[in-house]
TrEMBL record:
The keyword Ion transport does not apply. Belongs to the NADH dehydrogenase family. This is FAD-dependent oxidoreductase. Residues 2-315 form the FAD/NAD(P)-binding domain. Pfam families: Pyr_redox_2. GO terms for molecular function: NADH dehydrogenase activity. Gene3D superfamilies: 3.50.50.100.
Length: 401
């Protein structure tokens, strides 16, 4: 029997850990149940931190962990899923192709930044969506110091006033000072189509965010979107033109394109609709998890967000349940009633809220300490020690926060 997991992000990593945990509990050998994880690299990209400086350091190796729990690593990118024949086709870095059959499949392919066809965005826009994108932005920022102080060199525009946009924008003043010098007259501007900053956070936490932006000197342009980009800067939908050499696009994400190959229903974000055990209805043997799945967190109408907080726990349930079907033991319905946010606000601290109603629990330096612990400890893979790694993946206990 073979269980194949596509993706080495938070959901894919915990799917592998959890499936291996159940295999161990049931006394089944790796020869009897092969668990294979397919990804371009055996590395976890710590995506929630890519707004920070030195993004090339924001990865964690997985190969030793996978070896410790007897999970096979298959290097390459899945470009085709054939659900009827239960086969995935993999493109390798060397340009060759190979196939891998499966008895159960876990789709943990994550998400991608949504890039609309705005004139000039592809040529002149940056992002913090992937490791390569974040490294390109960091290289560009360091290159600004060698350019003349004209044409908006010291101005950064962040398109999108949601979670990612705010974290990128509030980190930027310190990054720019470190590169351009403490006396540089830098500007950071957030452009948000909605009438308020952080539209998904609600009215409760918003004054804390607005105060932090004011403290850092971050400007906002609300009720307007990006109409076009060119070498001189960015033009907004209200006609305003802002001279800048740096535009960071942070306006929404969608499930990775591979989910479109699964013949099933999807939501507006491209996520596969799943049942309580994270199966894809109507497609035998296929589970979806993390940013690839639209899953109910509870019975109150709350659904998992596209975040590592939900992906880790969802991954553990998906891996457990896919293995459980093969091993003939009961599956466990996914549930995640606890929900928190911890929003980094740069030198202004952070904001920690609890619950879907975003009740504020911590602000400032106290919340910042928690954010640092989340970013540097909690979301990283377990150590490559078999017993501890397997124990970390109990679906009922897994949480990144």
């Amino acid at each position: 029997m073979r269980l194949v997991i596509i993706g080495a992000g938070f959901a894919g990593m915990y799917a592998a850990l959890s499936a291996a945990r159940l295999r161990e509990i049931q006394g089944v050998s790796p020869d009897e149940l092969d668990i294979a994880l397919v990804a371009p690299e055996p590395t976890l990209v710590v995506r929630p931190r890519l707004y920070e400086q030195n993004p090339e350091t924001l990865t964690a190796p997985l190969l030793d962990v996978l070896k410790a729990i007897d999970v096979s690593y298959v290097q390459g990118s899945v470009d085709t899923v054939e659900t009827q024949s239960r086969m995935v086709r993999i493109a390798t870095a060397k340009g060759t192709k190979k196939t891998l059959s499966y008895d159960r499949l876990v789709v943990a392919t994550g998400s991608r930044l949504f890039r609309p066809s705005i004139p000039g965005l592809a040529e002149h826009g940056f992002s913090v969506d992937s490791l390569d994108d974040a490294i390109a932005l960091d290289k560009h920022l360091h290159g600004l110091a060698k350019r003349p102080t004209v044409n908006g060199r010291d101005t950064v525009v962040v398109a999108g006033g949601g979670f990612t946009g705010i974290e990128a924008a509030t980190e930027m003043p310190a990054r720019l000072r470190a590169i351009l010098g403490p006396n540089a007259k830098t500007r950071v501007i957030i452009v948000e189509r909605n009438s308020a900053i952080a539209p998904d956070m609600g009215a409760g936490p918003r004054p804390v965010i607005e105060s932090a932006l004011h403290k850092l000197g971050v400007e906002t342009r609300l009720g307007a979107g990006v109409a076009s980009l060119d070498e001189s800067g960015v033009t907004l939908s209200n006609g305003e033109h802002i001279e800048t050499e740096t535009v960071i696009w942070a306006a929404g994400i969608r499930a990775a394109p591979l989910t479109a190959q699964i013949p099933a229903e999807r939501d507006n974000f491209g996520r596969l609709l799943v049942d309580p055990c994270l199966r894809v209805p109507g497609v035998e043997g296929v589970f979806a998890t993390g940013d690839a799945a639209r899953a109910a967190c509870d019975d109150e109408g709350n659904y998992a967000l596209m975040s590592c907080q939900h992906a880790t726990r969802m991954g553990a349930f998906a891996g457990n349940n896919a293995a459980a079907e093969l091993l003939g033991v009961p599956t466990r319905p996914y549930h995640q009633k606890a929900y928190v946010t911890c929003l980094d606000l740069g030198e202004a601290g952070a904001l920690f809220t609890r619950g879907w109603d975003r009740k504020i629990e911590m602000v400032g330096d106290v919340a910042k300490k928690t954010k640092r612990e989340i970013n540097t400890v909690w979301i990283y893979p377990p150590k490559a020690e078999r017993a501890a790694a397997l124990a970390s993946a109990d679906p009922e206990r897994v949480t990144s926060l």
